[in-house]
Design brief:
The chain has 331 residues and is α+β, with helices and mostly antiparallel strands. It folds into three domains: 11-39, no CATH class; 50-235, Chemotaxis protein chec; 262-277 and 287-325, Surface presentation of antigens (SPOA) (Roll). It has helices at residues 8-20, 25-36, 50-75, 91-97, 122-132, 148-161, 165-169, 220-223, 232-256, 273-278, and strands spanning 79-90, 103-108, 115-120, 178-183, 197-207, 210-219, 262-265, 295-299, 302-312, 315-323. It is elongated.
């Protein structure tokens, strides 16, 4: 174990406490030993870093806002959903924590492997169904006796709602949520091995006067391919890329507004210094260009186009005939 290096102020504070009797040397040693001991449960292996858990929380905070908007429009009543917690636990522990009879929706998230489980508290589920069927949103828990019609209504409601996972996850990976299974007894679901680590995101949900929880269970095997994208450094790099892209766009727009000289050359010739010094008014220079010959148009002293001379609205003008080879690379 690496030794912790204390600052000079911390050393002075410890020496002062020992000298004044506020802390004895034995107390200091005891505190040092307690600080080195850390409880670790090998049955509950932590496979996600705190950074990754924070990223998952951030994603599902966005998901909670999308769900709030969706259910408010569908149910036409007060709806509030927010993230209560995000923890990593063994799958077996999660299954034991949910009620024996509840509403369970299983989804696939291609291209990611594996399935995720979304558990909705029966009180919330029945309140939603009551609103969809024209009621006041009263919750009556009879999950053991669901009719085929009630099962169909619930399945359709949650299938459409949780398609919003696509939008919430779009900042990390493009997924296509596919509704796979509807179940009421968690004992009949065995998505992964009991000791597999899963992330459970709990959403506080309020529908009118009814409150409950929506739990999203995501196994480690589903998230394993995209774990690097859940780190803080990836988010920072993404923001830098977005910033860089914006700067490039602004630079291009600025360049487009820059003014450059455009010159149509009528022709050119070479003369000696002696002839140049002796030239005067009335002298004629042969430019080596015929009346019907095309002209070269230069942009910023670089030949870009071939044109023919003429007039446009009583002004001298040129008409572009073709672009010179290699001109596109000089934009």
């Amino acid at each position: 174990m690496a030794n912790e290096i204390l600052s000079q102020s911390e050393i002075d504070a410890l020496l002062s406490a020992i000298n004044t009797g506020e802390m004895s040397a034995d107390d200091f040693k005891k505190e040092e030993e307690e600080r080195k001991v850390k409880v670790y449960d090998f049955k509950r292996a932590l496979r996600f870093s705190k950074d990754q858990i924070r990223s998952l929380t951030r994603i599902h905070e966005n998901f909670a806002r999308i769900l709030t908007t969706y259910f408010s429009a569908q149910l036409r009543t007060y709806v509030h959903i927010n993230v209560a917690s995000a923890d990593q636990i063994p799958y077996e522990e999660f299954i034991r924590s949910v009620p024996k009879m509840t509403i369970l929706n299983v989804y696939e998230l291609p291209p990611l492997d594996g399935r995720i489980l979304i558990e909705i508290n029966p009180n919330i589920a029945y309140s939603m169904m009551d609103r969809v069927m024209g009621g006041k949103g009263v919750s009556i828990n009879k999950v053991e006796n669901l009719t085929e019609i009630e099962t169909s209504i619930m399945s359709q409601l949650f299938e459409k709602a949780f398609e919003s996972l696509r939008e919430a996850w779009s900042t990390v990976v493009d997924v296509e949520p596919v509704f796979d299974e509807f179940e009421v007894n968690p004992q009949f679901l065995q998505m992964v091995s009991p000791n597999e680590t899963v992330v459970v995101i709990s959403l506080n949900t309020t529908i009118a006067e009814t409150s409950g929880m929506i739990n999203i269970c995501i196994p480690h095997v589903v998230l394993e391919p995209i774990l690097p994208k859940l780190s803080g450094s990836y988010w920072m790099e993404s923001k830098r890329k977005e910033s860089s892209s914006t700067e490039v766009t602004q630079l291009r727009e600025g360049i487009k507004k820059a003014k450059v000289p455009v010159v149509a050359q009528l022709g050119k010739t070479e003369v000696t210094i002696e002839d140049f010094l002796s030239m005067g008014v009335g002298d004629v220079l042969d430019l080596g260009t015929g009346i019907g010959d095309p002209l070269t148009v230069c942009v910023g002293n670089v030949p870009k186009f071939i044109a023919q001379p003429g007039r446009s609205k009583k002004k001298l003008a040129v008409q572009i005939l073709e672009t010179l080879k290699g001109g596109d690379g000089d934009e």
